[in-house]
């Protein structure tokens, strides 16, 4: 039976390029508002300054990027004397000013929102200079897990201050996307669609996983992606693995293979993460039953993405549906938030005590993986609201 497009949700027609994104001055206004909200939040906890850490653009740009729109352009690298902190950034925000320490003078000045930017190849020395006037104060540290140990050790040795983790204070703010972020995420999802459609077109008998990966990656870049971190192409028995390295191999696709296509990257700093499972040729009855169950479970997860819904309720409802369809072994991890990072809070697992917030964006991805046979997953991006907004337009290819 030929493949057809499932018609569960309606989408606006798309051109080759995504919708127009907001002007730069709008970006600056939004980022300044984020800084003000962050200052108010830490001030309510009696803190004098906020120190936010970020890593390379394709890794974990973190709170520093969220508060400044700076995405460190270099990869992280070993520390050496006078050359410490490549691939990192530190933002120091006080009521008086916001000062960003970066690892290179080659940053996008027109996009960064800070009162001062201080480039230095030695972030140990540069950040100490910036923080010394704050000695003896109560300082909030955001994304401390991204801070290299040598920098933290230098701060502890040379700066007397009270450090307080503020991740739990800032994450509720960051989870709720402003209008600029929502526009960026919609735009990014459309670029992901271009990549997945090209990959699906290339997924023919005899094509290698690498050839399918190359076709999808090229199409996403042509559509406007900053980068494609990877496009996982897992075929046949390897479709049973929810992750595998490398992203694609020289295995040739065969008629009847299930193929997982999972594209991850970013556009203007905002991430996309969209996954589809397709069948090469006509699926068997068993494969068709699995795909239909996965799509039904994904539809349910999208429908439950409403403010006030508990993560536990969403996950348990989806897992119950899959168990009723004959898949009690469905994956426990059902998704995550998305924004300037591919994986943001909340995690969608039944053991997480979180409640969904209006305006956050989720990747919902129910999956069933059976080693030695195959697996399937469908990943949608949805804006949480009373009427959840599905922003991933890639069709569900079903039998």
CATH-derived topology of the largest domain: Creatine Amidinohydrolase
Compute the gyration radius: what is it?
22 Å
Our estimate of the beta-strand percent is 15-25%
What is the terminal-to-terminal distance? 7 Å
The description of the largest β-sheet is:
6 strands, mixed
SS summary, helix count: 9
- Tell me which oligomeric state these chains represent: single chain
Unreliably modeled segments: 1-19
SSE run: EHEHEEEHEHEHHHEEEHHEEEEEEEE
The CATH architecture designation of the largest domain is Alpha-Beta Complex
CATH class placement of the largest domain? Alpha Beta
Structural class call reads alpha+beta
Read across the widest sheet, the strand sequence of neighbours is 5-4-3-2-6-7
What would the average pLDDT be, to the nearest integer?
A: 93
Provide the helix percentage: 25-40%
Number of domains in the coordinates?
A: 2
Number of strands: 18
CATH superfamily of the largest domain: Creatinase/methionine aminopeptidase superfamily
- In one word, what is the shape? globular
Descriptive notes:
This protein is of the alpha+beta class and 399 residues long. α3 runs parallel beside α4 (149-158) and α6 runs antiparallel to α7. The strands form 5 sheets. Strands 5-4-3-2-6-7 form a 6-stranded mixed β-sheet, sandwiched between helices. Mean pLDDT is 93; it is low at 1-19. The termini are close together. The chain contains 9 helices and 18 strands.
Main attributes of the structure:
399 residues, alpha+beta, Creatine Amidinohydrolase, 2 domains, five-stranded antiparallel sheet, 32% helix, globular
């Amino acid at each position: 039976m030929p493949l057809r497009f499932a018609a569960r949700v309606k989408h606006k027609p798309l051109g080759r390029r995504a919708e127009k994104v907001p002007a730069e001055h709008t970006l600056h206004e939004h980022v300044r508002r984020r800084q003000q909200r962050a200052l108010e939040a830490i001030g309510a906890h009696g803190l004098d300054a906020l120190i936010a850490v970020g890593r390379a653009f394709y890794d974990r740009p973190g709170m520093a990027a969220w508060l400044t729109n700076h995405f460190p352009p270099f990869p992280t690298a070993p520390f050496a004397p006078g050359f410490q902190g490549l691939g990192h950034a530190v933002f120091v925000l006080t009521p008086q000013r916001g000062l960003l320490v970066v690892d290179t003078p080659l940053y996008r000045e027109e996009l960064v929102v800070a009162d001062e930017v201080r480039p230095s190849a030695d972030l140990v020395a540069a950040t100490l200079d910036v923080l010394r006037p704050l000695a003896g104060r109560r300082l909030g540290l955001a994304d401390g897990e991204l801070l290299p140990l040598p920098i933290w050790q230098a701060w502890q040795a040379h700066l007397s201050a009270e450090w307080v983790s503020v991740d739990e204070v800032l994450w509720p703010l960051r989870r709720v996307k402003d209008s600029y972020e929502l526009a960026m995420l919609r735009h990014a999802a459309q670029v992901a669609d271009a990549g997945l459609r090209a990959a699906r077109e290339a997924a023919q008998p005899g094509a290698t996983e690498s050839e399918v990966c190359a076709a999808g990656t090229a199409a996403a870049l042509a559509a406007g992606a900053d980068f494609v971190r990877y496009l996982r192409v897992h075929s046949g028995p390897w479709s049973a693995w929810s992750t595998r390295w490398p992203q694609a191999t020289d295995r040739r696709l065969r008629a009847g293979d299930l193929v997982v296509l999972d594209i991850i990257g970013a556009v203007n700093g905002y991430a996309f993460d969209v996954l589809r499972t397709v069948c090469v040729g006509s699926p068997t009855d068993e494969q068709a039953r699995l795909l239909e169950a996965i799509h039904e479970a994904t539809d349910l997860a999208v429908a439950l993405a409403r403010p006030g819904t508990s993560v536990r309720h969403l996950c348990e409802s989806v897992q119950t549906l899959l168990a009723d369809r004959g898949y009690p072994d469905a994956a426990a991890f059902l998704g995550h938030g998305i924004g300037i990072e591919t994986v943001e809070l909340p995690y969608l697992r039944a053991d997480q005590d979180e409640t969904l917030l209006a305006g956050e964006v989720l990747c919902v991805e129910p999956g069933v993986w059976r080693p030695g046979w195959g697996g399937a997953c469908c990943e949608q991006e949805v804006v949480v609201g009373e009427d959840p907004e599905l922003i991933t337009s890639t069709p569900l290819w079903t039998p």
